[in-house]
Specification:
This protein is mostly helical. The chain is built from 34 helices and eight strands. The strands form two sheets. It has a five-stranded parallel beta sheet with strand order 2-3-4-1-5, with helices on both faces. The protein has a three-stranded antiparallel beta sheet with strand order 6-8-7. It comes from Amycolatopsis oliviviridis.
């Protein structure tokens, strides 16, 4: 029995003893099942890398390596050069099992061209080299590793490859076309794996793709090279957190812990950043992980810290940016002006002052270069470290940056105002003046489109509101908060509602705008009362009333008085509540403000229920319902129906209560209010419980909890009596 058979037989015996199938061993070692089968049967020769991997996976150190053949068996007899120019693999390699399988599958398929792309520092070359080491033994003529250096042309590389393959220099033609022909001819009939590292474009690598079907090509690039239609494409993202932690602990020998997790998060799970951080820790014996974590905590200094003397993230990122056009580079820098985690094409267009089509093209080029991410089809974002790099090294024109931010905030206010008008068309909106060059708002045709826009944009708008405050754009700060208010009310996003209005109030004070200060303070009170903070709400209403009276704004004063009446009702001061609400109601009727009059009437109906007049309350709530329907205010109509159900429930008219709640649930679901939907199902559960149907009541309450858990017992009467 020869050495290869001995190795294969021993591998098969050890594999079966471990209870592993060939497929399972293939997954663990990243070698193909077919190749492992040939090794076990003696058809293919094993190699040291396979022996070491199998010993590790099977837990049999030293059992297979001694059985390796003394000399590699050549599948070819002609004296051609069999190159093996692969760089060594690193021992610290974690994750990427899915990507390794995808690359192997691509190279085993017909055509056999695979592009591995990703941002600088993500580990493309390391992955490609590791995969090539696994596959090299399957190629009779070996493997070639060619660093294209990000700029070398394919025709220039022909000369390098031909020399490595043993072609005498005098036989290599000077003419690029003749050289390419000789290259293709020399590869004919050969079985060769080409690894083309650091490609810059599809045009650069296309002349290097062999026509020989037994050759395979593995390409790495910072660009996606999507123009290579026949290639398989594997895009590398950041390491999963567990793999990132494993990489750091493997390199440093430091045990896992909270500080290690923080460090790899600060490195944004980018392999190069993690390796540099680990190298810095090793180079400073006096440091511990906590010290490294402290140094990386400062975002403004993080890039400078991620420099071990030989490797820097800044240098890695510069290589990517060098390939950009002037317009692409400018937009790349300006995108960092937006403080949110992502943005859409309209915001990018506002930043750049370029038309949408041109902006879309530039965004596509930046995405192709792995400089921005695309979390959703119409949204773009930044890797954290690339944002820091672009802010520090690409965004270099302060005046352009200042103008871009002003355009962006103006556009955001204009769009939010448009969305607010679609969401609550009869609410009072202040007249906002925009400069002639302000971009047009996003097109929103109805309330549903406005809600969708707000849901996608509100985190960025909140960040923009805070940044406007920091940059001294005080008018835009309070305006953004004002136009976000109705969305926050519908979505019940109380924390950002409070946060933006605190900023807005400070900005209004800064510029001495009393009306903006009064309105913002009143809306801040609405946020407090909506989540049940009655004391805070009343304090805000008191301040707003005094401000409105100071400037003689009767509408603002009356609206705040109505809000104060709601607060008194929830406190249990029903007589004071009726007084304030009825006074406001009279004013709104006299002023012709049917929307506000109906909203105030709904409040009066709730107070009447509390004072033991449910039938009168139901009649009044039904009157408001007709007004809301006439004005097309679906959410207000839903709230009126829930009010009707609440009144009939207290009048012991369970049939009418159930009918109103069912109608409210249908309309709440249609207009997207989970809060009012949950309130309606809670009311239906209360009706079922009152009629003795405990099982049905529990089912309805569970459904309410699934839709919107923990309805406030102060604010929602249905929640207060549930299960009582």
């Amino acid at each position: 029995m020869n050495e290869r058979a001995t190795f294969g037989a021993e591998l098969r015996r050890l594999r079966k003893a471990a209870g592993l199938s060939l497929a399972e061993l293939a997954v663990r070692t990243h070698y193909s099942k077919g190749y492992l089968s040939k090794v076990e049967t003696g058809i293919s020769a094993p190699n040291p890398a396979l022996a070491a991997l199998c010993e590790t996976e099977l837990g049999v150190a030293g059992r297979l390596t001694p059985l390796l053949p003394g000399e590699p068996v050549r599948r070819r007899t002609r004296p051609d050069v069999r190159p093996s120019g692969l760089p060594p693999t690193t021992t610290a390699f974690t994750g990427r099992a899915t990507e390794l399988r995808a690359i192997r599958t691509a190279l085993e398929a017909d055509g056999g061209v695979c592009v591995v792309s990703g941002m600088g520092g993500v580990g493309k070359t390391e992955l490609a080299v590791r995969c090539a080491h696994r596959l090299e033994s399957g190629f009779a003529d070996g493997c070639l590793f060619i660093d294209l250096r990000g700029h070398e042309s394919g025709t220039a590389v022909h000369d390098r490859v031909l020399r490595v393959l043993g072609v005498p220099a005098e036989r290599i033609p000077a003419d690029p076309a003749d050289r390419a022909a000789l290259y293709r001819s020399w590869l004919r009939g050969r079985s060769l794996l080409l690894v083309l590292d650091n490609a810059v474009s599809a045009a650069q690598v296309r002349p290097l793709l062999p026509a020989e079907p037994k050759c395979r090509v593995l390409i790495t690039s910072r660009s996606r090279l999507s123009a290579l239609d026949d290639a398989a494409h594997v895009s590398l993202d950041m390491l999963p957190l567990a793999a990132a932690v494993d990489l750091f602990t493997t390199v440093t020998g430091v045990p896992d812990g909270a500080a290690v997790t923080r460090v790899v998060r600060r490195c944004a799970r980018l392999p190069l950043a993690i390796r540099i951080a680990a190298a810095r820790l090793r180079a400073h014996p006096a440091w511990d992980v906590a010290e490294l974590d402290r140094r990386l905590d400062d975002e403004t200094a993080r890039l400078a810290e991620l420099d071990d003397g030989e490797r820097t993230l800044t240098a890695a990122f510069r290589l990517s940016v060098q390939q950009l056009s002037e317009a692409e580079s400018r937009l790349f820098g300006l995108l960092t002006v937006h403080p949110g985690t992502d943005l859409d094409i309209h915001s990018a267009s506002a930043l750049s002052a370029l038309p949408l089509r041109e902006t879309d093209h530039l965004l596509d080029r930046l995405h192709e270069a792995h400089l921005i991410t695309q979390p959703e089809p119409d949204r773009y974002g930044f890797h954290d470290l690339l944002r820091a790099f672009a802010t520090e090294f690409v965004l270099t024109d302060p005046e352009d940056e200042m103008k871009a931010f002003s355009r962006l905030t103006a556009f955001a206010v204009r769009s939010a105002a448009q969305a607010g008008r679609e969401l609550t068309p009869h609410r009072f909106f202040p007249e906002i003046v925009f400069d002639p060059g302000t971009p047009e708002p996003v097109r929103l045709d109805d309330g549903e489109m406005a809600m969708s826009w707000f849901r996608a944009e509100w985190p960025g708008l909140v960040a923009l509101c805070g940044t406007a405050r920091e940059r001294g754009e005080h008018e835009r700060c309070w305006q953004l908060a004002f136009f976000l208010r109705d969305f926050f009310f519908v979505a019940k996003l109380w924390d950002p509602w409070l946060e933006t209005h605190h900023w807005a109030r400070a900005s209004a004070e800064e510029i001495g705008d009393t009306w903006a200060l009064a309105t913002t303070t009143a809306n801040l009170g609405v946020a407090h009362i909506d989540r049940g903070d009655l004391d805070e709400a009343s304090a805000c209403y008191g301040e707003a009333l005094a401000l409105f009276r100071r400037i003689g704004d009767g509408h603002g004063e009356t609206t705040t008085l109505a809000h104060s009446g709601w607060a008194e009702h929830y406190r249990g001061n029903h007589d004071d509540a009726l007084r304030d609400l009825r006074q406001a109601h009279t004013f709104f009727i006299r002023d012709g403000n049917r929307r506000n009059a109906a909203i105030t009437g709904r409040g009066i109906a709730l107070v009447l229920v509390a004072t033991g007049q449910p039938a009168e309350a139901a009649a009044l709530a039904i009157e408001t319902l007709s007004v809301f329907d006439e004005l097309g205010l679906d959410l207000d109509a839903t709230m009126a129906l829930n009010c009707v159900g609440w009144a009939w429930y207290h009048a012991n008219r369970h049939d009418l209560a159930a009918s109103a709640y069912r109608a409210a649930a249908d309309r709440a679901e249609a207009c997207g209010s989970q809060y009012e939907t949950a309130r309606a199902y809670t009311g239906l559960g209360n009706v079922a419980a009152a009629e003795g149907s405990a099982a049905l009541a529990a089912e309805l309450w569970d459904r309410a909890d699934e839709i919107h858990p923990d309805l406030d017992r102060i604010m929602v009467g249905e929640a207060r009596v549930r299960g009582a």
